[in-house]
Amino acid sequence: MTREKIITGLTKEELEHDLLELGEPKYRASQVIEWVYNQRVTSFSEMSNLPEELRQKLSLIYRITALTPVHDSLSNDTTKKYLYQLQDGRYIESVIIPASTNVNGNRSTRQTLCVSSQVGCAYGCKFCASGLDGFARDLEPSEITGQLLAVEEESKKKINNVVFMGMGEPLANFKNLMHSIKIINAEWGLGIGARHITVSTSGLAPEIRAIADQPLQIRLAVSLHGASDKVREKIMPINKKYPINDLIESLQYYNSKKKHKITFEYILIHGINDSEEQAKSLAKTASSLRAKINLIPYNKVEGLHWERPPETTQKKFLSILIKNGIQATLRKEKGHDIEAACGQLRLIKEKSEMAQKITG
Ligand code: SAH
Ligand code: SF4
Questions:
Q1: Which residues fall within 8 angstroms of residue 92, CB to CB, at 6 or more apart?
Q2: Distance CA 351, CA 98 (A)
C-alpha cells in the first residue's frame, strides 16, 4: 500500500502535481478535493463535473478512503468509540467526545475526536493498554485523516477539535503526523484551526524541538506522570532515554519558539506518583515552564494492577498545584464503561479478539 494511492493522504499541491503528470489541468485537483472534503463523496463515479474518462482513470489509480468502519459503541456519557479496519487487515480505534457543559455552565459546541497515530505503541508505559501488546506499525496520513472523515460521516457531526491521544506515540510517526495535520488544518481539507489540534507525547525530546520549529500553532501536551526521574522511570521506560532534565530543556526550547502554553498530563496512580512531594515538585517544573496541568485519575486497564487514588488524595494533589499558582484541572473521565478512556485503547491482534470486542 502506498500513500500516494489514497486521495485523503495527499495535500492539494501533491494532487495537483499528480494530475499534471497524468496530463490533466491543475484545476481538476480542486474539483476532486471539493468532492472529497465538501461533498464527501466516496466514489469517483459521483464526481459529475469530471469527464467520464478521467473518473475511470482516477478510480484505477486512487482510492478515496483508507478505512472500513467495523463497529461503534456508545458510552453512557455520550462518548463514542469507533473501530476501523485498515487495508492490511489491522485495526485502530477513534473516540468522539461530544459537546458538554463547560465550566461557565454554557453548553459547549466542541466536538473532540481522539485519534490514533500508530497501530500499537512501542513505548511500553507500564500503565497503558496501548503499549501492552507492542507495536505493529505507523499509520499513514490517509489513515489519520480518514478517522475524522469516517467519524464525521457516521456521526453527522463536524469535528472541531482533534487530540492525538488515541493509540500510539504521535511524535514517533513524525512525518506522517505532520503531513496529516497539514490536511486536517487546510481550508480546502478538514478546516480545523491549528489551535484546535493537540499532539500528546510521552516526551520525545528531539521531536518536541522539531514541533517547535515547524510553523503551525498546534498545541502540545506532554505526558509527565512523574515529577522526579525516580518515579517517572518506574512507569515510563522512555524516561531512561530522555530523563526529565532533557525533556525540560526541549520544552524550554519549545517555549522560546511558541507563544501558547504547554499542557502537562499527569495520571494519578495510587501510591506511585500521588504524594505531596511529587505535587510540589510538579508545581515547580510547571511553574518554570509556564505549563498548565491536567490531572487524570488513572483509568483501570484489564490485566494491570494499578489503581487510582481516593478522591481526597486527588483533590489534595490538585490543591497543592493551585496553591503554588499553577493552572490545573482534575479531569472528569469519559468513556470508561466502553474502554474508550485515555490509555484504554489497545492493539487488536487477532480476529477472534475483534469478534469478542464486537459481541462483548
Ligand atoms: N503516546 C502519547 C499519546 C497517547 S496516550 C502519550 O503518551 O502522550 C494519551 C494519554 O493517555 C497520555 O497522557 C497517556 O499517558 C494517558 N494514559 C495512558 N494510559 C492511561 C490510563 N490507564 N489512565 C489514564 N490515562 C492514561
Ligand atoms: Fe504509548 Fe502513550 Fe501509551 Fe506510553 S502512554 S504506551 S507512549 S500510547
A1: 67, 83, 84, 86, 116, 119, 139, 143, 147, 166, 167
A2: 30
- Asked if residue 62 has its Cβ within 6 Å of ligand 2, the reply is no
Q: Is 202 a pocket residue for ligand 2 (Cβ < 6 Å)?
A: yes
pLDDT tens, position by position, 283-338: 999 999 999 999 999 988 888 999 999 999 999 999 999 999 999 999 876 666 65
Do the first three CATH levels of 5-63 and 68-359 match, i.e. the same topology? Answer: no
Q: Which ligand sits closest to the CA of 331?
A: 1
Distance CA 142, CA 147 (A): 8
Record the pTM: 0.93
Look at residue 327 and give its three-state secondary structure: coil
- For residues 211 and 178, give the distance between their C-alpha atoms in angstroms, rounded to a whole number: 9
Q: How far apart are CA 186 and CA 353, in angstroms?
A: 37
pLDDT value at 2 more than 90? no
Q: What is the CATH number of domain 5-63?
A: 1.10.150.530
Can you give the residue ranges of every domain in the chain?
5-63, 68-359
Q: Where does residue 120 rank: exposed (0-12), middle (13-18), buried (19+ CB within 10 A)?
A: buried
Q: Is 342 a catalytic residue?
A: yes
Report d(CA 284, CA 193) in Å as an integer.
31
Is residue 114 part of the annotated active site? The answer reads: no
Per-residue pLDDT reduced to its tens digit, 150-187: 999 999 999 999 999 999 999 999 999 999 999 999 99
Q: DSSP letter string over 213-247?
A: HSSS--EEEEE---SSHHHHHHH-THHHHS-HHHH
Of 144, 211, 218, 267, the one to substitute when testing ligand 1's pocket (max ligand atoms within 8 A of C-beta) is: 267
Domain formed by 68-359, architecture? Alpha-Beta Barrel (3.20)
Q: Residues 93, 143, 169, 207: which is the catalytic one?
A: 93
Indicate whether residue 125 lines ligand 2 (CB < 6 A): yes
